[in-house]
Amino acid sequence: MAAKQIKITIVFDNYAYLEGFPTLWGFSCFVETGETTFLFDTGSNGRVLLRNMEKLDVDLKKAEALILSHPHWDHIGGVDSVLEAHPNLHLYVPDSLSKHLIRDLDAQSLGVTVIDSEPQKILPSTYTTGTMGNIGEQSIIIDTDKGLIVITGCAHPGISHIAARAIEILRKPIYLLMGGFHLMYDNPEQINEVTETLDALGVQYVCPTHCSGDLAISMFREFFGERYFQGGTGRTLTL
């Protein structure tokens, strides 16, 4: 059964949607599907992450799981603080994470599921793409009545490839594609190719943030128009 109403709150980002939030490098969002609740990535600073969540009235203790996209510091830096505040979490981590870190995380939580390259269902209406690319990054797919919601950490494997894989896995169109798109080093021609590819794939709404880059965010806003959502800490999307 597909999840019906989804609430996603960006709780850590190097962009701020609301005033008064620090803009430290990294990304994290809190996802409530009505069937399950989880934290996706932890940003680079756990103390700041927890303060942001408190200020946004987001209750970490409601989360059942913590999902980590890939091993980079700006996505796993807050893990210790999160588990200290809420150890009753099950973790879903990529196999690209250090085996020593995986062992330590297992000891500090309810347990760890290590994700390899195979897509799989991990929570109600929630799937992983499996690890992709040289870095070994997983993205999350939420199956909803409106279509798929795909959340990326940094999209190192390529945002277009991730979108195509999500569609291939569940055979449904993407309603919302959000997170870091990793286009900050790309030129206008490359970014334009990505926007056109995503549009051709049938992506309905986009919310590029974190490592997407100022130029790409501007171009996505112009290309998608009313189908563009601004990201940043404090942004809540109810879908």
Description of the structure:
- The structure is a single chain.
- The protein has helices spanning 46-55, 73-76, 79-85, 99-107, 159-170, 188-201, 214-224, and strands spanning 7-13, 27-32, 37-40, 65-67, 90-94, 111-115, 120-123, 126-128, 140-144, 147-152, 174-180, 205-209, 236-238.
- It is an alpha/beta fold and 239 residues long.
- The chain has a single domain, classed as Ribonuclease Z/Hydroxyacylglutathione hydrolase-like (Metallo-beta-lactamase, Chain A), CATH 3.60.15.10.
- Helix 1 (46-55) packs across helix 3 (79-85) and helix 6 (188-201) crosses helix 7 (214-224).
- The two termini are 16 Å apart.
- The relative contact order is 0.17.
- The mean pLDDT is 97.
In short:
28% of the residues lie in helices and 26% in strands. With 239 residues, it is of the alpha/beta class.
What percent of residues are in strands?
25-35%
Strand order of the largest sheet: 6-5-4-3-2-1-13
| Low-confidence region ranges | none
CATH topology: Metallo-beta-lactamase, Chain A
Write down the overall geometry: globular
Order of helices and strands: EEEHEHHEHEEEEEHEHEHE
Instruction: State the CATH architecture.
Output: 4-Layer Sandwich
What is the CATH C-level name? Alpha Beta
- How much helicity do the residues have? 25-40%
Q: What's the tally of helices?
A: 7
Query: What does the radius of gyration come to?
Result: 16 Å
CATH superfamily, please? Ribonuclease Z/Hydroxyacylglutathione hydrolase-like
